[in-house]
Design a protein that fits this description.
Elements lengths: L3 H56 L11 H9 L2 E6 L5 H4 L2 E2 L7 H5 L4 E5 L8 E10 L2 E11 H5 L2 H45 L15 H49 L6 H32 L8 E4 H11 L1 H7 L2 E6 L4 E4 L1 H18 L5 E9 L2 E8 L6 H4 L17 H11 L3 E6 L5 E8 L3
Parallel strand pairs: 1-2, 7-9
Antiparallel strand pairs: 1-5, 3-4, 4-5, 6-8, 9-10, 10-12, 11-12
């Protein structure tokens, strides 16, 4: 009873049944009105014709011929109606065969105004209601009586059961057809929903190797299936990133911790007694400590950015001087690896932004360029300003980035080479967007890459 497979057909069938009953009631009502209007019209026509017939034969002074007494019964058999006369005895009911009717049944104001009157009444000696029409009979300009033609109302109502029977037969046939269609549609609706429910159970259990129904047309179920598939892929990707994060972070933490522990043990055990060895060990400890601090800082920054809990400082920043500082940081590495390292700063804008974070973005882009540029390659840092926007470009002669990797490189903990934290570019992208700018990529396999940071100039 609680299943959609039952409730959907039940609701539709109840709706169809209610609609059918309302339609049947309206049809019967319309049929009643139509039958009554048609019967009234027929009775009025009969009353008009019979009144003229008796008026001509009984009241005309030029005509001596009288309607025979049996004519009334013959006319009643022919028309299926009862014929009454009410009025002055100039037309004798006894001699004409017409049924007498007391004057009290009629509205004589209408009769004397030469108007046909429609009425319902129970004739003397009868036990049912008749529908009738009274037509005036005149002698010259004087109304002397009225000819009344009447039919039992029950005869009119006798046709309704036939209509009702046929209506319910049609309704029953329609319900059977509707039941088949609704059952078919409910199965088409509930089958993919059940499949999605089973897939959701597997996702909840951490399994993503489920099969979803084949893609339907662009209806609501198809859209829901597609969104569910995207959600499951996102969860799977999130779990993979989480596993990658644990492996990368554990590796990145273990390496400096191991180095620090080794040099600390050497200092404690007196293995580095001479000043040069001690200074070298302390330098390694300091470098690895800085490396740990950077890693922890990057993870905290990314967590704050994704939680929208990150704030920027506003200050006047000379972009050219800041880029020169970032450029000098990698000069020694470029010399050691034989990399052609260029700096082209063609503008000197002063903008209001967070200088430390801007330096972090550029440093991350340069660090990424040095990571992928082979020894003897080329890296260039550039600065340009145009129409209220500054553009900081970092170009390299590395292997380039393919279309499938362009969206991945900005995801945390993803690295093409499988080493490193993969946090540099995601942090750079988040910081660029937080500053109101954008980070664009232009790359081609085999021809290197160019990252360009575009920021609005705000004084």
């Amino acid at each position: 009873m609680r299943s959609l497979r039952f409730r959907i057909p039940a609701i539709f069938l109840v709706g169809i049944l209610v609609a059918g009953l309302v339609t049947a009631a309206l049809a019967i009502r319309f049929f009643q009105d139509y039958t009554q209007d048609r019967a009234e019209g027929e009775i009025r026509r009969q009353a008009t014709g019979l009144a003229r017939l008796y008026e001509d034969s009984l009241l005309s002074p030029k005509k001596r011929q009288r309607m025979p007494e049996f004519a009334a019964s013959v006319l009643e058999d022919a028309t299926g109606s009862r014929i009454y006369y009410s009025g002055i005895e100039i037309v004798s009911p006894g001699s004409s065969g017409l049924r007498p009717l007391d004057r009290s049944f009629l509205n004589w104001e209408m009769i004397e105004a030469d108007q046909v009157q429609s009425l319902e009444f129970v004739p003397p000696g009868a036990d049912r209601t008749f529908l009738a029409a009274a037509h005036p009979i005149q002698s010259g300009s004087t109304t002397v009586g009225a000819l009344v033609v009447a039919k039992p109302r029950a005869e009119l109502q006798s046709r309704w059961p036939d209509l009702l029977e046929r209506t319910f037969l049609a309704l029953g046939a329609g319900l059977l057809v509707a039941l088949g269609l609704v059952w078919y549609m409910s199965r088409r609706l509930t089958k993919p929903v059940l499949a999605l429910s089973q897939a959701a159970d597997q996702v909840a259990a951490g399994r993503y190797d489920f099969k979803l129904p084949r893609r339907r047309p662009n209806d609501e179920i198809g859209q829901l299936t597609e969104r569910f598939r995207e959600m499951a892929e996102g969860l799977d990707e999130s779990q993979r990133r989480e596993r990658t994060f644990l492996m990368v972070v554990s590796h990145e933490l273990r390496t400096p911790v191991t180095a620090i522990r080794g040099h600390v043990d050497a200092l404690r055990e007196g293995l580095a007694e001479d000043p040069e060895a001690r200074d070298a060990s302390l330098a390694v400890i300091r470098a690895e400590t800085d490396r740990l601090a950077r890693l922890i800082g990057d993870i905290l920054d990314l967590a704050r950015m994704e939680a929208d809990q990150f704030t920027l400082e506003e200050d006047e920043v000379e972009v050219k001087r800041l880029l020169e500082q970032a450029f000098q940081t990698f000069t020694e590495e470029a010399r050691r690896r034989g990399i052609e390292y260029e700096c082209s700063l063609n503008a000197n804008p002063v903008i209001s932004t967070d200088g430390d974070r801007l330096l972090q973005i550029v440093s991350n882009l340069l660090d990424n360029a040095f990571a992928w540029t082979p020894d003897g390659g080329r890296i260039a840092l550039s600065l340009a300003s145009d129409n209220g926007t500054i553009a900081v470009g970092v170009s390299d002669s590395g292997p380039g980035i393919g279309p499938q990797e362009r969206s991945r490189i900005f995801k945390p903990f993803w690295s093409r080479a499988g080493d490193g934290t993969g946090l540099g570019l995601p942090i750079a992208l988040h910081l660029a967007e937080a500053m109101g700018g954008e980070l664009a990529l232009d790359s081609e396999i085999g021809r290197g890459s160019r990252f360009e940071l575009r920021l609005p100039v705000r004084h």
